[in-house]
Design a protein that fits this description.
alpha/beta; Rossmann fold; 6 strands; globular; HAD_2
Length: 224
C-alpha cells in the first residue's frame, strides 16, 4: 500500500547510530563503578554486563533477589546507568545521526518516533542533533520497570504515535524483527532498513519493504 500520510521511525539504528556492544558494556562498567558508587545498589561486574543489554522483567527480579534489593531499585540503577552512557556518547559524538537523516527534510508529512529506548535518551539525542522540531511526537520508555511491557513487539508506542499524528495511512521504519512485528500488530506497513549493524541479520517476519537508506524511504512517499 502506498499513499502514506505520515512517517513513524525507530530511533536507534534508524535515525541514530548504534553503539558497539563491547564499548557500551565497558562504558556501563565504568559508570557503575566510578560514577554510581553512592548508589544503594552495588552489583558485580557480571551483573552490570547483563544489565547493559536488553533484559526481561523476570531477569531483573532474579538479579534483584541475588543482590538483596528490590526489582524497582535495580531497574532504576540500570536505566540511569544506560541513560548516562548513551547521553555521554551522544554529546561526545560517538553516537550520532546517520548522514541520510537529512533526506527526511524533503517529506511533507508529519513525522513521529516510536522507540524502545528511554524517552530521556531519545530527547537528548534530538536536542543534540538539533532535530527536535522535525518530529511532532515521540513515544519511548519511561525509566520504570513496568515500561518493559510496552516495548516492541508490543504495538503500544506505534499506536500512540499514530494517534498523535492523526493520520490514516502511516509507514513505520525499523531495523529489527521486533519492529516488523510491532508494525504488523498495529496495522501499519513497515520498512526494514538495513544498516551495517544488521546487514546480515535474519528476519523471521517479512516487512512490507526492505530499504538501505532513508532516501529510499522518502522515495516510497514520492511514488505514492
Amino acid at each position: 500500500m502506498t499513499g502514506y500520510d505520515s512517517l513513524v521511525l525507530d530511533y536507534d539504528g534508524v535515525l541514530a547510530t548504534v553503539l558497539d556492544k563491547e564499548a557500551r558494556t565497558e562504558a556501563c562498567c565504568r559508570v557503575a563503578f566510578e560514577e554510581f558508587l553512592d548508589r544503594d545498589v552495588t552489583p558485580q561486574r557480571e551483573t552490570v554486563q547483563r544489565l547493559s543489554r536488553s533484559v526481561t522483567p523476570e531477569t531483573v527480579h532474579t538479579l534483584s533477589r541475588q543482590l538483596d534489593t528490590t526489582a524497582d531499585a535495580l531497574w532504576e540503577f540500570r536505566d540511569d546507568m544506560l541513560a548516562t552512557v548513551l547521553n555521554e556518547a551522544t554529546t561526545a559524538g560517538r553516537k550520532r545521526p546517520y548522514p541520510d537523516v537529512g533526506a527526511l527534510a524533503d517529506l511533507k508529512v508529519p513525522l513521529g518516533i516510536a522507540s524502545n529506548n528511554q524517552r530521556r535518551v531519545v530527547t537528548h539525542g534530538l536536542t543534540e542533533y538539533e532535530m527536535v522540531s522535525k518530529f511532532e511526537t515521540v513515544h519511548a520508555r519511561e525509566p520504570q520497570l513496568e515500561s518493559l511491557h510496552n516495548k516492541k513487539p508490543a504495538p503500544t508506542f506505534l499506536e500512540s504515535a499514530w494517534a498523535d499524528l492523526d493520520s490514516q495511512n502511516p509507514l513505520y521504519v525499523g531495523d529489527k524483527e521486533t519492529d516488523v512485528l510491532a508494525a504488523q500488530r498495529a496495522g501499519m506497513d513497515v520498512a526494514l532498513i538495513r544498516r551495517d549493524h544488521n546487514r546480515d541479520r535474519n528476519i523471521g517476519h517479512d516487512p512490507t519493504y526492505e530499504v538501505s537508506s532513508l532516501d529510499a524511504v522518502v522515495s516510497l512517499f514520492e511514488s505514492g
